[in-house]
Structure formats: structure tokens, C-alpha cells
Amino acid sequence: DIQMTQSPSSLSASVGDRVTITCRASQYIVTYLNWYQQKPGKAPKLLIYEASSLQTGVPSRFSGSGSGTDFTLTISSLQPEDFATYFCQQSYDTPVTFGGGTNVKIK
Amino acid sequence: QVQLQESGPGLVKPSQTLSLTCTVSGGSISSGSYYWSWIRQPAGKGLEWIGRIYTRGNAKYNPSLKSRVTISVDTSKNQFSLKLTSVTAADTALYFCARASIATAGNSWFDSWGQGILVTVSS
Q: How many CB atoms sit inside 10 A of residue B20's CB?
């Protein structure tokens, strides 16, 4: 299985901060990497697909980059509604696997 | 706008079979290039892919569950289903059904999700 390692596992930030979350794959996955946001008790919501493509309706403060094994999700200016858990996911091979998540908390 | 809705028992006894159905509305389960998937999440933990089915092909399962899982599709009802046999407390989780869009190159992403259904395994 391809292991997805996210860092940090949690972070505290303030409204307006720039936030960066990283995801590392245990093997080469081209750009077959997606990012999701999940709030407690809710289903994940797709933010970024194919490493850097913004899903329709997602604010432009979210962006993704990377290829190969190292990827980044950036929130340029954190908003109150962005406090949530973020997951990366690879679709290069089955089983599909997810990162362990990054919990973005209010400082 | 496609919508997915899980249904099934919220409580299953150990050693029995967990059966869930996902009803798709707002679009045909047979149209387009999509995988129809099941994903679960134990309380306070991460996401685990259970498996998927493609209406024009075979199902694929997570090897960690493969011997116990069956995913099937009923195109006449616009539904797909999950069966997980011989359940234990470790199978207690929030179960999601999801649609994955498939790109030309073969990569995919989960762009529509059900709200999730909590299944508890307990006697």
C-alpha cells in the first residue's frame, strides 16, 4: 500500500494567517493527489484534485502544489470557516489511501 | 447536482453481516465515468477506503478487508450496496458512500459524498 504522511498532525493559527500543510507519499504518485476538508460529524469536502486543480465553488485562498512524492496545501488567509481537519488522498494505486489528517485549530 | 444517501441498520451484532445501501439521486449511476465507493471512519480517526465498483466493470476492494467485503450495484434502482461479513467491534465506524470522478489518465477524486451512517457493532 502507498503510505501518505501528513504534517503537522495539528496546528493552531489565527484568522488571516497563511497556513501550509504537507503530504508525503511513500512512492511516486505523479500528481494523483487530492485534498479534502472535513468538519466534525460531516462528510469530507473536495478542495483540490490532481494536486493543484481547484474544485468548483472552493474559494481561491486554497491552493495545492507538488508532484512525485511531496505535496502542499496552502490556505493564503485563514478564515473562521476554515477551522477543520484536512486530509490528503492518493489515487495512483489501489488501495486508495488517505493521510492521517491535519487538525487546524483556533489560536 | 448528484446526491448520495446511505441507509441501513445502525446496530449490528458481532459475527453478523453489515449491509448498507447508497441511493443516488440527481443523476444515473450508469452514466459518465465514475467509481462508486465505500469509505469508513472510526470515531476520532482517519479515513479508510473499503472498495469501489464501476458499473461497466469489476469491483475492487481494500486487501485488508477483501475476504469479508462485497460491493454490488443495482442500476434499476440507482443504488449500490456494501456487505461486510463477520463483523467485530473494530468495524464500528461512520460509513460513507462516495462518487469518484475518473480522469482520462485514470486518476480519480471523490467529488460527491453521502452524509454518512454510524454503524455500531455490539451485542
A: 22
